[in-house]
Specification:
162 residues; Ferritin
């Protein structure tokens, strides 16, 4: 049981770091759409934290199968994380934010994949697999925008990446 709780503790820290990162990005964003998009991402991270805390409590109490999955939402529809919404007001900052976000989402997917494979608790595996869906949704959107921003940044720096 200790191993299961240790996995969730690390997941909670990872999600907290994501929340803090997106909160800082929202504070630094210059346009209202960017602020709103990053604020929404931070709110999603808080949802993940709440789900993980609840699972932690259920596992610690010896009743993980009583976890209420009706509170676990599906990932949002595509389009929330586009550059139009996030904003490109500062090329270097935007590239950095997206680059960090891509790496965070990849790490989260790897973490939850390993956690789902290692756990012996079906409800925990189900939660981890659900979180993988969320992180994949984020990753796909961030990666596409990162590639676009990277190309724009190279061009603005006088580099021709072709």
């Amino acid at each position: 049981m200790y191993h299961e709780l240790k996995i969730i503790r690390q997941a909670l820290l990872n999600e907290q770091e994501g929340y803090d990162f997106y909160t800082l990005a929202a504070q630094q964003a210059e346009n209202p759409e960017a602020k709103e998009a990053f604020t929404n991402l931070a709110a999603e991270e808080l949802n993940h934290i709440n789900w993980l805390r609840e699972m932690y409590k259920k596992i610690a109490a010896g009743d993980p199968e009583s976890f209420d999955f009706s509170k676990v939402d599906l990932p949002p529809s595509p389009g929330l994380y586009t550059a139009k919404n996030i904003g490109r007001e500062s090329g270097s900052i935007a590239v950095s934010v997206y680059g960090i976000a891509v790496n965070m989402e990849k790490a989260a997917i790897d973490f939850y994949t390993a956690a789902a494979e290692q756990t012996k608790i079906p409800a925990a595996a189900r939660l981890y697999n659900h979180l993988i869906l969320w992180e994949n949704e984020h990753l796909e959107k961030f990666l596409a925008e990162y590639e676009t921003l990277k190309q724009e940044w190279w061009q603005n720096q006088g580099f021709d990446p072709a």
